[in-house]
Specification:
3 domains; alpha+beta
Amino acid sequence: MLFSLLGVYVTVEGFVDIGYIAGVECIFGGALAKNQTYKAFVARPTHILDLNGELLDGAHVLASLVSEVRDISSYATYVVRNDEALGDELERVAVAQPTTAGRRAGVTMPDFLVSGKSGRSRKEMLVQHRVVTECRSYQERVKAANGESSKYVSQGWKRTVDASAPGYGEDYVNLGAVDRCYAAIGNNLFLDGEIVLKMVIQGAWCRLIFDFDNARFTEGEVALPVIKVEDGQPVFIFAVVTDNPVVQFSGGYVIGVDVGINNYATVVVRSVATGRIVYETTLSQRVHSLWNSVQASEQQVRDLKVKAAALLRDRQERMAALDEARFHREAASRKKRELAILAAQEMAYLSHMWGNAVVAVEDLSWVVNTMQHGRWNRGALVRWLAHYVSQNGGWVVAVNPAHTSQRCNACGAKASHPTHELSVCAEHGTMDRDVNAAANIAARAAPRVEEARKTRAKNRKLRPQAALKTPVARRSLKYPGGDRTKNKPTPKRKNRPRVVREVILPLRPARVTVTRVLAGCDAQGATGTCQVAIKQGNMTDEWRLCSLI
């Protein structure tokens, strides 16, 4: 789970740690628009004022806010766990908007949550919104666990889905559920460089002042924040909403993407008029390095599992091997996520450089287990690709994947494969198998691109190609994936004078004879291994406990 929201795109990666919250759409009070981009950032108030401009005690006000958020969250969780008829009532009203659905389903705010003179009805909207979103989230988890969900459920989530009732402790409210009578942003933050949030806290109005990076965010609309309690302090999660440009698709070129096993992705730019491949790439060196690292981590996991299976009689060594396998598996997961983001950014940049060319991928949604054989990480790549390409006004289209590598991309004749890497056409000779497949994918998207161009030409907001909105991956890489050709001699290393540093010894050396156990035998690790911290003089080490038997 990830909650690092500083500087990330919210559409996919932003609110994972909040715990579903009925999907990202519930964060903002509705479904995410496909023609909009949501960028999130976390902020804390620098100071708090009353309506007269008098400085208030920030610690006291924030403590009151934390108490209010916790009360609303706890009551909502209690209702979802104990009201058996709530789910049926929500299905009966059949309203998507959580606040309206909650009101029609009979969700009300109890008297013990009423505080102050202002904002009672709007506070009830916060309660209704939280109850409905949490109830719907619980229902979807149950359906997914029972195999009854009509929505897409990944194989990884199917293996770990928990159909238990929601637990207490997820304290958050969404201010997007209320109107200006309870919370509003009262200034032009793009000019001022700060956010002035006017809201009701425990029945009293106040102004919360936040810093705003108007150099990073130059346009858009800032949505009311989600307030989440973390470590006893409120965290304000804002989102800047910007409209994606309506730009005409390229009529001259189509980009085809073939996701593989040896190469993470093979990308070609195909000319629509001639059918020739004008550009091909397997992405940057950074993508290759990450892909190799992912494969190495997954191989480590497999080897450690084999090792653990052979250590049935040595429980401590077996658990140690499984612990190490877990660390490698988590590392592989982080690397695959970074890999998908990086590759998608490079493809979005390529689409922009070729006149907003449509990007075509294989439609593999019918595959039951995409983790099989190659462990492709394809789903994450396609989602990130659609996210970044759409920001520039582009389009990602899925095509029929049948026989993409079995036919020659130039003439359509059946190709032979003397090796796994090569395709041979009787007329056009030998070609790379992945390049041939990517070209066929691009060719199958060309008719749909022509139809889409005619439809988009009718849009009144159509304009010439806009400036690139997505980040350029290679500019932020430590090891750029551009041209790495050596064009000058290797510079000589400068002779730096040696610096003699004084070694500061401890007051007394650590003595093994003086030990103190800081944790007992019941200190369990993540996978069941017993660990303790042992104090030796002025040094502390962690040791695994084992039974004398």
